[in-house]
C-alpha cells in the first residue's frame, strides 16, 4: 500500500493536542489525508488553516447522529473543508453515558434507527455528499432472529453508504470478508484496526496494536476491500500511548503489503 492511500482518523490523536504539531508529524510521515470527527462543533477556520499549512486534505468526517438534525450546518461545514463523505459512527447515545449501552437495541430498534438515518440520505446526496455509517463490534452480534444489527439498519436504504471498521468486525466475532462481499456496493471507506491477541478482550483499548503488529491478515483483507468502491483506508487506534509510534509503525507495515 502506498503512503498517499493511507489516512488517519483524527480521533486517534485527540489526547495529544494541540493539533498543529500533530498534523505536522502526520505530513512528515508522507500522509496527506485526515478523517475528522466532531465536525458539528469544531472551529472550522482554525482547523482549515492548520490543514492548509501542512498541505493536508480531508475527504471524510464523523458526526454524531444527533447533529444530522441541523443538516444545513453539517453540509455547510463539510463543503467548507471539501469533505465528501459524512459518517455517523454510532446510534444516538443513551442518557446513562455508558457507550456500550448505546448498542443495546432489539431488532425493531435497529430497523428504526436504520430508517431514521436513511431519511437523511437524499438531503446529503442533493448537496453532492454521501451519508454513511461506521460500525463497532456490537453490530455483528446475532439477534434472536438470526439477523445481525448491521443488516437491520444498512438494508433500509440502498444509498446509505458504509465505512467498514475491519478491526471491529473481527472483535465482534465475524469474518470481515463475508461483510465486505455483502456490502461491496456500499463501502466507500474502511478503518484499519489491529489487535495483539485474539484471545484477550478486543474491546480493551490496550489490546489494540499498530496495523500489522497484531494477528489480523491485512494482506488478505486489503486485497478483498480493493474489490469494492472503497476510497479511503484509515488508521484508527482508540487510545494509543504514543500516537507517533502507532502511526509510523502502521505506515511502515502497510507499505510492505
Structure write-up:
- This protein is α/β, with parallel strands linked by helices and 257 residues long.
- The protein has one domain (3-255): Divalent-metal-dependent TIM barrel enzymes (TIM Barrel, Alpha-Beta Barrel).
- Helix content is 34%, strand content 17%.
- It has 10 helices and 10 strands.
- It has helices at residues 19-28, 44-53, 71-80, 107-118, 121-126, 149-154, 166-171, 176-182, 218-225, 243-255; strands at 6-9, 33-37, 57-62, 85-88, 130-134, 161-165, 187-192, 194-195, 208-209, 232-235.
- An 8-stranded parallel β-barrel has the order 1-2-3-4-5-6-7-10.
- The chain is globular.
- The termini are close together.
- The model has no long low-confidence stretch (mean pLDDT 97).
Question: Key terms for this structure?
Answer:
257 residues; alpha/beta; TIM Barrel; eight-stranded parallel beta barrel; two-stranded antiparallel sheet; 10 strands; 34% helix
Structural category: alpha/beta
| Percent in helix | 25-40%
CATH class placement: Alpha Beta
Radius of gyration: 17 Å
Number of domains: 1
Might you state the CATH topology name? TIM Barrel
Q: What's the number of extended β-strand segments?
A: 10
Any guess at the CATH architecture? Alpha-Beta Barrel
Strand percentage lies at 15-25%
